[in-house]
Amino acid sequence: MARPRNFYEILSVDREATVDQIRVAFRQLARTRHPDRFSGTARAQAEVAFQEITEAYNTLLDPEQRSRYDKTLTTTGEELSLNPKELARSMLGRAVGLMKNGDIARATELFQQSVAHDPQNARARHLYGMFLAQQGGRLDEALRQLDQAVRLDSLNPKLLLDAARVFAKANMAARATRLAETAAQLSPDDPAAEALLRQLRQTGKGR
Fold first, then answer.
1. CA angle 70-148-78, nearest 5°?
2. Can you state the percent helix, strand and coil of the chain, rounding each to 5?
3. pTM of this prediction exceeds 0.85
4. Which of 76, 120, 140, 157 could pair covalently with 183 via S-S, beta carbons 3.0-4.6 A apart?
5. Are 92 and 126 in contact, with CB atoms under 8 Å apart?
6. CB within 8 Å of 136: residues ≥ 6 apart
């Protein structure tokens, strides 16, 4: 299996690329690979790919994030022997541990890399989305990650319920209600799903 691409490879720039070169590379990719240029299945694939491009751009554009990311590229021989999905799972586990220990910056990097190595991993996007929802100013990105997670694993009641709570936090009541309704249907004996659904419906009536 091919080695997973790092952020420099995703943007097609070298490790010594300047900020201006990174901006130019991102703009070129945005023009040709933006999801709006596609439809149907191709659009869904383009959305995932464009999220990778955006994550790579945001990381490499910021000097501090880029410096920390560069250090992670010096991986051990054991990690290099892993396939992308196994490497993503390893990074996800470390990200969760760092999050619990309060190392937000490093946890963010590893969550990003986990998703980049395995974009189809609903659990990684779910956990990353919930993590972002707790960070100031990251709610929009949290919603994007959770939206992708729901698309990838639409029959997971916990995922749907967590996503519903974050969409409700963003004042997107209609989407939150749909997610909570689906979660309640999939897990009819879950009191948490019923409680959230009642809360959302009461809030809707109040409006």
1. 35
2. 75, 0, 25
3. no
4. 157
5. no
6. none
- One-letter amino acid at 102 equals G
Give the model confidence (pLDDT) of 102-121 as tens digits.
889 888 988 998 898 888 99
* Owning domain of residue 193: 154-207
For residue 70, give the nearest of 142, 127, 16 by alpha carbon: 16
| Local structure of residue 135 (DSSP, 8 states) | S
Q: What CATH number corresponds to the domain at position 21? A: 1.10.287.110
CA distance 207 to 202: 9
Residues 149 and 78 in one domain: yes
Q: How far is CA 56 from CA 5, 29, 52, in A?
A: 11, 12, 6
**pLDDT for 51-65, tens place per residue?**
889 988 998 998 888
Selection from 106, 164, 153 nearest residue 130 by Cα: 164
